């Protein structure tokens, strides 16, 4: 079963991806994750988007709170952005975003990898 996004969310993800490419084209690859996170926050806010940093989400197990995870970036309360600086994205990175989407109830996550010679982007649905 393929989940589809509404047009507004689709357009929002495109704006976030565009901001990611702007950051990558300006900084290149090779910095630590926090540098890209700060630059992306600046870029998204300059595009008049509502952005949260290290947004907490509770994790439940059978109705009991069992922990909290912190999303790298949340845009417009609708899109989780997970940043990586690695040689390549792997299935555990994608599974991590899927779990974040389940815990948050959000419909889409973006996985941005700044650790390669060109920005790698994966759109992740629950």
Describe the fold and architecture:
With 126 residues, the chain is α+β, with helices and mostly antiparallel strands. The chain has a single domain, classed as Lambda Exonuclease, Chain A (Alpha-Beta Complex), CATH 3.90.320.10. Helix content is 39%, strand content 32%. It has 3 helices and 5 strands. Strands 1-2-3-4-5 form a 5-stranded mixed sheet, sandwiched between helices. The N and C termini lie close together (11 Å). The relative contact order is 0.19. The model has no long low-confidence stretch (mean pLDDT 93).
Can you write the helix and strand succession as a string? HHEEEHEE
Could you give a short account of the major beta sheet?
A: 5 strands, mixed
CATH class designation: Alpha Beta
Q: Given the helix and strand composition, which structural class is it? A: alpha+beta
Molecular shape: globular
- In CATH, the architecture is Alpha-Beta Complex
Going across the biggest sheet, name each strand in turn: 1-2-3-4-5
Overall strand count: 5
CATH topology: Lambda Exonuclease, Chain A
Mean pLDDT: 93
Query: What's the number of structural domains?
Result: 1
Number of helices: 3
- Unreliable residue runs: none
Furnish the topology, listing elements before pairings.
Blueprint: H1 7-27, H2 33-46, E1 51-61, E2 64-75, E3 79-84, H3 91-104, E4 108-113, E5 120-124
Parallel strand pairs: 3-4
Antiparallel strand pairs: 1-2, 2-3, 4-5
Summarize the model shown.
This protein is an alpha+beta fold and 126 residues long.
Q: Notable features of this structure?
A:
126 residues, Lambda Exonuclease, Chain A, 5-stranded mixed beta sheet, 5 strands, globular
């Amino acid at each position: 079963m393929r989940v589809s996004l509404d047009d507004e969310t689709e357009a929002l993800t495109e704006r976030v991806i565009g901001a990611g490419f702007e950051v990558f084209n300006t900084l290149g690859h090779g910095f630590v994750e926090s540098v890209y996170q700060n630059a992306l926050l600046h870029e998204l806010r300059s595009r008049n988007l509502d952005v949260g940093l290290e947004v907490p989400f509770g994790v439940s197990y059978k109705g009991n709170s069992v922990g909290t995870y912190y999303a790298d970036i949340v845009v417009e309360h609708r899109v989780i952005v997970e940043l990586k600086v690695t040689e390549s994205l792997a299935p555990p990175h994608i599974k991590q975003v899927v779990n974040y989407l389940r815990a948050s109830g959000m419909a889409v996550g973006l996985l941005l990898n700044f650790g390669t010679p060109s920005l790698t982007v994966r759109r992740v649905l629950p």
